[in-house]
Amino acid sequence: MITRIVKMTFIYENIDYFKEIFYESEKLISAFDGCIRLELMKDVNNECTFFTISYWQSEEKLNSYRDSYLFKNTWSKVKPLFSEKALAWSLFPDHLK
């Protein structure tokens, strides 16, 4: 299993539009082959910073999603809303070394 965490910081005026995009895409992303779960979290100290946390069956499934039209289309709408560059991490449990 792979956990993908993406940190996104938005221009304040763009937050509602980001949420609209996210909630429109959430069901499609969650239903994508290999996606186990998708969550949206908000930073407790910065109302402009959000995290998506997604869980994938494998790195191959995650990469398949990242190469998909769904990802590219969604990301092309979200990326211009940022106030700073997004950061992303792909993690797996340490016991799977």
Descriptive terms for the model:
Alpha-Beta Plaits, four-stranded antiparallel sheet, alpha+beta, 97 residues
Task: Annotate the secondary structure layout.
Elements: E1 2-9, H1 15-30, E2 35-42, E3 49-56, H2 59-66, H3 69-78, E4 87-91
Antiparallel strand pairs: 1-3, 1-4, 2-3
Helix pairs in contact: 1-3
Brief summary:
This protein has 97 residues and is of the alpha+beta class. It has helices at residues 15-30, 59-66, 69-78, and strands at residues 2-9, 35-42, 49-56, 87-91.
What this model shows, in words?
The mean pLDDT is 96. The chain starts with a strand and ends in a 6-residue tail after the last strand. The protein has helices spanning 15-30, 59-66, 69-78; strands spanning 2-9, 35-42, 49-56, 87-91. The chain is globular and about 40 Å long. The protein is of the alpha+beta class. 8% of the residues are buried. 35% of the residues lie in helices and 30% in strands. The protein has a four-stranded antiparallel β-sheet with strand order 2-3-1-4. It has a single domain (2-96), classed as Alpha-Beta Plaits (2-Layer Sandwich).
